Amino acid sequence: MNFSDVSKYINRLDLIKETAEQIIKDFDMFGMEIKFSGNVYNAYQELFEQIEPHIKKLIADNQSKFMGVLYRIDVSDVQIEKAVNENSSEPFSNIVSDLIIKRELQKVVIRNHYKSK
Questions:
Q1: Can you say how many angstroms the Cα of residue 40 is from the centroid of all Cα atoms in its chain?
Q2: pLDDT digits over 31-77, tens only?
Q3: What are the pLDDT digits (tens) for 11-31?
Q4: Exposure of 34 by Cβ count < 10 A (0-12 exposed, 13-18 middle, 19+ buried)?
Q5: Where are the alpha helices (DSSP H) in 35-91?
Q6: Measured distance CA(63)–CA(116) in Å, rounded
Q7: Angle at the Cα of 54 from the Cα atoms of 24 and 83, rounded to 5 degrees
Q8: Based on the number of CB atoms within 10 Å of its own CB, is 113 exposed (0-12), middle (13-18) or buried (19 or more)?
Q9: Is residue 62 within 8 Å of residue 12, measured between CB atoms?
Q10: All structural domains of the chain with their residue ranges
Q11: Which pTM value belongs to this model?
Q12: Interatomic CA distance for residues 115 and 110, integer angstroms
């Protein structure tokens, strides 16, 4: 399953809530607070607007913590490079934040798929 495959799950309320919980948990491990209002209809934007400033600050101030977050969430250099090549006009922190949200959703979808079997 690749990132484009997860787009069809973006409207599943249960998966969006689980994704937000996963993001909150992963960022909390690094001392960064992310909150989710529970409004699943603008969840992507809400989460993105909180993740992006953290990522931007990490890129500028703490490369090792930035790499730790990427490792924890499982966003690879290859995925980042591909996304940067496809969206070269986008700020790097926006690209990475988008990848983080999509990867977290992907993990939730995969986990639920195997849980139901």
A1: 15
A2: 999 999 988 888 989 999 999 999 999 999 999 999 999 999 999 99
A3: 678 899 999 999 999 999 999
A4: middle
A5: 43-61, 63-73, 77-86
A6: 38
A7: 95
A8: exposed
A9: no
A10: 3-115
A11: 0.91
A12: 8
